[in-house]
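To fix ideas, we now present one chain and its tokenised fold:
***
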Amino acid sequence: MYTVRIRLADLACSMCAAHVTDALRQDFPQFTRIHTSAARQLCTARSPIIPDENAVRRSIQRSGYTFVALECTPARASLLERIAALVRHSQT
């Protein structure tokens, strides 16, 4: 799992952030936990794969905003994900 951070520009309010979030949900169904902040000009999401930067850029631009940068880092598993892994492991 990866944490995806998308730096943006031109987000003026929470409705702008909602437009970006909606566009990413539609174009990247593998993204989960999408959160966009107009104040921070940042969108974060979780993804099982590293997304194509050009595809993310096109999605953001189609929604009417400016893509600045994309950063992907391995995500630390949540507590529930770690518990589920332990349960799966104990059942084998």
About this structure: The chain has one domain: 2-90. Residues 5 and 34 are 10 Å apart (CA to CA). The chain has three helices and four strands.
